[in-house]
Amino acid sequence: MTSAPLKGSDRLAVGPLADGTGTAKSVRPSSPRRRGRGRSAPYWFLVPTLVLFAAFTVIPIGYAIWLSLHKVKVKGIGLGKGAREQVWNGLGNYTDVFQNSEFGHSVLRAFGYGLIVIPTMLGLALVFALMLDTPKARSAPFARLMIFLPYAVPGIIAALMWGFLYLPSVSPFYYLLDKFGLPQPDLFDGGNLYLSFANIAVWGGTGFNMIVIYTALRAIPQEIYEAARIDGASNLKIALRIKIPIVMPSLVLTFFFSVIATLQVFTEPMALKPLTNNLQSTWSPLMAIYDSAFLKSDIYGASATAVVLALATFVLSFTLLRISDRYTREDRA
Fold first, then answer.
1. One digit per residue, pLDDT tens: the chain, 333 residues?
2. CA 130 – CA 133 distance, rounded (Å)
3. I want to staple 125 with a disulfide (CB 3.0 to 4.6 A). Which of 12, 210, 232, 308 is the partner?
């Protein structure tokens, strides 16, 4: 006598599917609705991030673009209800940005500041990372901490601390220079301002870039170094011919971060401005935007300037990334 095949929920689980008492259990296939819920569950974890990203990034950017396309039209003497009206201005604010000489000068000053900061900071970060990665490096954990520690100091505190060290009346450095009869340079005058700002940026940013490069160095297999030493390579040749080429992607990454930070320099000059009369309120691009928005009450022009600066940063970063990627592919080929 043959039995009919079981279907659906009538199927019984035997062997491993049976419980401890030996009683067979029925196996019910999962419904499509339940399977759909399981597949969509990971996406629900992204909802808080997407909401915060939209609220604090997408919406503010869209609002800034919308403001940059408008202006205020003043009727009469500008007093009373309805005397000021927001009207469409099109690309008028952007035209004013490119005709604004103060903003152009601020971009040039940021460019000169970057020429000092980026090579110095990345060069020191690379040298420190290579020194800490040598087999004979002593007290490497303590040295890493000391190099990285300035990065943990908030930017405004670091700028104020260095600002008071630059003041002749309170700085111990000027006291020592006076005791030894050495010249006392004015670090708030002319080109010395670039060195003053660059010193703060290098002091605070070298540690972060060093950690990025050092982490990439620690990921290199030790067998490569051992093979190079067997071939008679010194530590210098290993650094120049093995370590630096392998960590080049990390160097490119830190370079991009440094370029973006250079275009967005704001904390150092803004914190040091009250300490000297030689610093313009539009010294950097972000200071020019701040001056236009909060001192001149031109929020529409400031929005247009911010959009231009953001687009310039994006284009510059994208161009440098494409160039770097092209050279990387050629080297691999």
1. 444 554 444 444 444 444 555 554 555 555 666 655 667 788 888 999 999 999 999 999 999 999 999 998 877 666 767 677 888 999 999 999 999 999 999 999 999 999 999 999 999 999 999 999 987 777 888 999 999 999 999 999 999 999 999 998 889 999 899 889 888 888 988 788 999 999 999 999 999 999 999 999 999 998 999 999 999 988 889 999 999 999 998 998 899 889 989 988 999 999 999 988 888 899 999 999 999 999 998 999 999 999 999 999 999 888 888 877 776 676 665
2. 5
3. 210
Is the CA virtual torsion 186, 187, 189, 195 positive or negative? Answer: positive
Single-letter code of the amino acid located at 119: P
Q: What whole-number distance in Å separates Cα of residue 323 and Cα of residue 333?
A: 16
Q: Does the CA dihedral 174-178-179-181 come out positive or negative? A: positive
Residue 22 near residue 14 (C-beta atoms within 8 A): no
In single-letter form, the type of residue at position 332 comes to R
**Can you give the pTM of this predicted structure?**
0.81
What is the spatial distance between Cα 266 and Cα 201, in angstroms, rounded to a whole number?
11
**Cβ atoms of 11 and 25 closer than 8 Å:** no
Cβ density class 135-167: b for 16+ within 10 Å, e for less? eeeeeeeeebeebbebbeeebeebbbebbeebe
